[in-house]
Design goal:
By secondary structure, the chain is of the alpha/beta class. The chain is built from eleven helices and eleven strands.
């Protein structure tokens, strides 16, 4: 391995083989046309730009002047020498394709700027280390702005790399979804719960109807009786699932399993067969 390669690897830079870049563009961006403008935010020596069909407008940004000059020679495309996070761009892109250095804060910053630049329904496709999708809270944060999909690619495409890698797609959409990623939103929600709520979901003796258990816990904290608004306030950050219809779910369960004691007000049944796990050491707070 050359001295330059060792230096790049120390910086988290692993150049994509040209044939693999071309294959990834064809697979994940098959609809690119003459009306599109693609950008590689960390162009390197131009591997992904070489994989973009010649009839598609494209340009790159590269912070290293020597690599930027190589990319110009290799691609005959416009290459801006500078930092993608701050560089003035010649056009607003409709697609982002690339292989950024494997550094978490930089990748997050690139995604932030891409979100600002792109219109809805535009796509970002990046080669990333798998650990970027390793934790539930990080993935949930991404999913608040992008629909997500990931596909594993072979690590040995990149000699010297020691971490598993993937091609991750981020589509800027108003209503987002995740493909190839399971239980991330749910796991993040459980992590956000107070301990007394999490025990209802994760305990060995977790009740079959977790929504009922959570509402029971809320009413118990309220002294056995409370208004819907009070219950909403206590349950909002401790929901058993991420459904956007959580208030409707509360109303459905509370009407089925608890006693209406006035307009918009409910209490525990006097003889309730459900007995939540005792935890006198903690008292639920809103």
């Amino acid at each position: 391995m050359s001295k330059d390669e060792n230096h790049r690897h120390a910086l988290g830079q692993y150049f994509t083989p040209s044939w693999a870049a071309k294959a990834l563009v064809a697979r994940h961006f098959p609809a690119l046309g003459s009306d599109d403008i693609a950008i590689d935010p960390c162009a390197g020596d131009g591997r992904f730009l070489m994989g973009i069909p010649s009839h598609v407008g494209a340009f790159g940004v590269e912070i290293d002047p020597e690599l930027a000059q190589m990319a110009r020679a290799n691609t005959a495309r416009t290459i801006i020498t500078g930092d993608f996070l701050t560089a003035a761009l010649p056009a607003r892109p409709t697609a982002v394709i690339g292989n950024p250095p494997f550094e978490s804060d930089l990748i997050d910053a690139i995604l932030d700027r891409c979100y600002e630049l792109l219109d809805y329904d535009s796509k970002i496709g990046l080669i990333l280390p798998v650990y970027m999708f390793q934790t539930s809270r990080r993935v949930r944060r991404y999913s608040e702005r992008f629909s997500l999909h990931q596909e594993m690619i072979p690590r040995d495409l990149f000699p010297g790399i020691k971490t598993p890698v993937m091609f991750a797609s981020f589509v800027k959409e108003r209503k987002t979804f995740m493909s190839g990623l399971f239980l991330y939103a749910e796991a993040a929600s459980v992590k956000d719960m107070a301990r007394e709520y999490a025990s209802l979901v994760c305990g060995l003796n977790a009740p079959a109807n977790t929504w009922r258990a959570v509402i029971h816990r809320a009413l118990t904290s309220l002294g056995g009786e409370g208004t819907l608004q009070e219950i909403y306030g206590l349950v909002e950050n401790h929901r058993p699932s991420e459904t956007m219809w959580w208030k409707e779910q509360i109303r459905k369960v509370i009407r089925q399993s608890f006693v209406c004691s006035g307009p918009g007000k409910y209490r525990l049944p006097e003889e309730d067969s459900f007995e939540p796990e005792e935890d006198n050491s903690m008292r639920m707070t809103a």
